[in-house]
Recover the amino acids of this structure.
């Protein structure tokens, strides 16, 4: 299946490499707003189909699908353009700025008979399956703490008076939607949508959250998600049960998953995959769903995307974090 890319950052490079390894997707087209950047990026991968116009690219027969990694606030515009031209779409997280955009896009995908995916890589990793199995060993879950706290070099630019996309409401940025969605998606993937959620942000003068604490309420337990782009952590995650704890490193990669028993302190490593680029699993799975027409799995992933966005939009608005796209 031929696919094009929108975006020329490191995450697009990572997806292209993942697609190559999966062998199910062939990179055939590149878009960037400027011809110089588009040509440089295409040259790196020996791609002949180069575009600086999204409509032209979406109408092209050179691709069947597109991977979109543009700034968050541009996702909806780009996604809709390709859906209307009957192309399958893989959009980097966070898929949209708000729920209205989500509903319109998924409705259009259904009308056009194509697939729309949110690229939440951790949910497709073999380590996610190991976490599901590990939950069976720790007894009734009572609490958890899942940090994704990672200092951004672009915060230095922000402190100097610049306006990097991820720290602006114009481009739908902030710690929750940039990093918090990784542990949030894990929790929703493992336990379903929470009964309630509250967010306690550290807001920057730009109007977005530089960091924050997200509290998720479930019957019988509470989950705590920490997210930040202005501080740093080791990012060890813990899910606490009455018999033991499920421990792993980094909510995006879930390295070294293990069970630690309460009574003995015994540590039992779970089956783990240490692939340096776990986007390969989502690339492979998205291609499989498209080729096989696996509607059941598609609907499951769609619901996960729905539930995560429902949480982030609710707590953002309650915290007074409003994106520019929501002010019209």
């Amino acid at each position: 299946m031929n696919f094009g890319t929108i975006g020329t950052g490191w995450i697009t490079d990572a997806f292209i490499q993942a697609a190559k390894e999966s062998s199910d997707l062939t990179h055939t087209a590149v878009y960037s707003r400027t011809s110089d950047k588009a040509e440089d990026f295409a040259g790196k991968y020996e791609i002949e189909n180069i575009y600086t116009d999204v409509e032209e690219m979406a109408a092209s027969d050179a691709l069947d699908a597109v991977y979109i990694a543009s700034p968050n606030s541009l996702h909806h515009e780009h996604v809709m353009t390709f859906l209307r031209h009957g192309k399958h779409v893989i959009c980097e997280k966070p898929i949209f700025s708000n729920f209205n955009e989500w509903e319109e896009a998924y409705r259009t995908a259904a009308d056009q008979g194509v697939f729309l995916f949110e690229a939440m890589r951790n949910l497709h990793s073999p380590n996610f399956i190991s976490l599901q199995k590990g939950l069976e060993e720790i007894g009734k879950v009572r609490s958890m703490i899942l940090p994704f706290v990672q200092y951004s070099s672009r915060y230095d630019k922000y402190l100097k008076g610049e306006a990097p996309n991820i720290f602006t409401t114009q481009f739908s940025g902030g710690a929750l939607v940039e990093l918090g969605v990784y542990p949030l998606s894990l929790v929703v993937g493992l336990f379903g949508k929470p009964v309630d959620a509250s967010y306690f942000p550290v807001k920057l003068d730009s109007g977005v959250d530089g960091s924050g604490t997200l509290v998720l309420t479930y019957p019988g337990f509470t989950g705590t998600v920490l997210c930040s782009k202005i501080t740093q952590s080791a990012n060890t995650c813990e899910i606490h049960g009455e018999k033991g704890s499920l421990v792993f490193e980094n909510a995006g990669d879930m390295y070294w998953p293990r069970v630690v028993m309460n009574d003995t302190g015994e540590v039992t490593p779970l089956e783990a995959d240490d692939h340096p680029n776990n986007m390969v699993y989502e690339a492979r799975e998205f291609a499989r769903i498209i080729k096989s027409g696996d509607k059941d799995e598609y609907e499951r992933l769609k619901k996960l995307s729905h539930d995560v966005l429902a949480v982030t939009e609710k707590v953002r608005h309650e915290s007074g974090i409003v994106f520019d796209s929501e002010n019209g």
